[in-house]
Write a structure and sequence with these properties.
Protein name: Amine oxidase
Organism: Plakobranchus ocellatus
Number of domains: 2
Largest sheet: none
Helix content: 55-70%
Strand content: under 5%
Radius of gyration: 28 Å
Distance between the termini: 99 Å
Order of helices and strands: HHHHHHHHHHH
Structural class: mainly alpha
Shape: elongated
Number of strands: 0
Length: about 220
Amino acid sequence: MFGTYFEKVDQELESINYIELEVNISPIALSLNKILTKHQVTSQPCHRGAFTDNHCHKYVSAKVYERLTEEIVFQTRKHTNDAFIIDDAHRVKLIFDNLNNAFAQIHKSISHTRPIKMDSLLVLQSYIDTYMEQSRIHFPQKLIPKQHILEHHVIPHIKRFGFGVGLLGEQGAEASHQSISKITTRALGINEGLEKLDPLAVSPALRNTRKVKLRQQRGKGATPI
């Protein structure tokens, strides 16, 4: 009886047409993308699909990452009755809830430009140790450069300067790109190539100030700058 039943099940399984799903277009991936869009969290193609700046701040909020992991379980239950696959979905939720919660503690403690009291570094070190321990348990073969920096260099940096690491973000570099672009546009009308390289060439006021200082120094017999 059981042999006949298993043979019937095997035949039904063989008759199922499986579809190869591409990355980011599976039902679960599409539903997760909708949640990220709702919370205005967008991956950046120029950073290989990672989150940056304010997108990271939004993602590490519990209401965002817990909603994402809940959706994984919900969509899995919706598309299969396989108990093993559903258990895997719950396992994924548990892993990433723990990782995100541990990282959120660190992010809240250091991702700012405010002073950090030295007596709080022991607590911060415990946050870092917890996160790295969780990461090594679940992803033992993966250690990214930012995790190395977090584990070995963040605490010494804070001890030396006494501030959070918010000033080391990418916003400053991005702002400089905008400034350089403006300078380049202003210098387009300058014929001499070398003059274009002079940042003062695009500012008549600063250029005249420098000329005055040069004349004053030469009048006093000083070496021109």
